[in-house]
Amino acid sequence: MGSGIAHRLLQAGFPVTVYNRSEEKMRALAEAGAKTAATPAEAARAAQYVITSLANDAAVFAVVEGADGLLAGLERGAVHIGASTISADATRRLAALHTKHGSEYLAAPVLGRPDAAAAGELVALVCGKPSVFETSREVLQGYTRQIQYLGEDYAVVAAAKLAANYAAVTIIDLMGQIYAFGEKTGVPLTMLHTMFRMLWAQPVLQGYATRIWRREFDDVGFDLRGGLKDVTLMVNAAAEQGVHWDFAEAIQRKMTRGIELGWGQKDWSSVYDVTRTEAGLNV
């Protein structure tokens, strides 16, 4: 996801410096015109805007804090745009760190897969100070097709992203359940695939309908481990509000089982294969 964002910013004419633990992942960006940095602090030094796109809470703080962290290099008044899906507590903690440092924070998780990032089709959900959002709008527009500003309460954007992902993951699992039902009852999967493509007009869901039907889980946009992380955040956030997201709890169990079966690095839509296994179908 971060690579797609960086490429879009380069194409929009922004000077970009990138950092990744893997030099291999930085090579294509360097060839496209980006500068590379040896540490997050070096990448953040003299930058007005820093964007992070990372796997989870721990990965974000590993990049932000410490002697080589981005806060060590970030100037006062600079803006950190957090594009990761993380917990509300982590989001509030990041905001507090930036307040103490004298820099600014925008929580801006995105909706979309890596191919959407590469195409500039991401949707950003943004919370933070209105003035900081306005001054950052041009940068946000550089890698998105739509921006939804949700106010100053950082917890709201974390909840909004989990709600969006909950909608996506329940539909993904729903399609898998229906395909498995079709296999058990003899309903042609081609007919179900056509039905899904008619029902799910959204291109991303159309793509998942095809991916699940063909069981193309090695073309990874978001792996099962990341999916379990997000679903666990959903379950915890809902429970804190006294809401019972039973579908999320069921998917959490299935994803955990999928990882136990060794499918953690496959696309998160491979949760379908857990449904198939439990239905007595061969995987």
Q: What features would you describe in this structure?
A:
The chain is mainly α. The chain has helices at residues 2-11, 23-31, 40-44, 57-64, 70-73, 88-101, 114-118, 130-141, 154-185, 189-199, 203-214, 224-240, 246-260, 271-278, and strands at residues 17-18, 35-36, 49-52, 79-82, 104-107, 110-111, 122-126, 144-149. It has a three-stranded parallel sheet with strand order 3-4-5, with helices on both faces. Helix 8 links the parallel strand 7 (122-126) and strand 8. Helix 9 crosses helix 14 (271-278). It is globular and about 65 Å long. The model has no long low-confidence stretch (mean pLDDT 96).
Q: Brief overview, please?
A:
The chain is mainly α and 283 residues long. The chain has helices at 2-11, 23-31, 40-44, 57-64, 70-73, 88-101, 114-118, 130-141, 154-185, 189-199, 203-214, 224-240, 246-260, 271-278; strands at 17-18, 35-36, 49-52, 79-82, 104-107, 110-111, 122-126, 144-149. It has a three-stranded parallel beta sheet, sandwiched between helices. Strands 6-7-8 form a three-stranded mixed beta sheet. It has a two-stranded parallel sheet with strand order 1-2.
Q: Structural class from helices and strands?
A: mainly alpha
- Estimated helix fraction: 55-70%
Strand content: 5-15%
Radius of gyration: 20 Å
Q: CATH homologous superfamily of the largest domain - what is it?
A: NAD(P)-binding Rossmann-like Domain
Q: Count of helical segments?
A: 14
Mean pLDDT score, rounded?
96
- In total, how many beta strands? 8
Shape: globular
Described by strand count, sense and barrel closure, the largest sheet is: 3 strands, parallel
- Low-confidence sequence ranges: none
Order of helices and strands: HEHEHEHHEHEEHEHEHHHHHH
In whole angstroms, the N-to-C terminal distance is: 29 Å
Strand order of the largest sheet: 3-4-5
If classified by CATH, what would the architecture of the largest domain be?
3-Layer(aba) Sandwich
Number of domains: 2
* The first-level CATH class name of the largest domain: Alpha Beta
CATH fold annotation of the largest domain: Rossmann fold
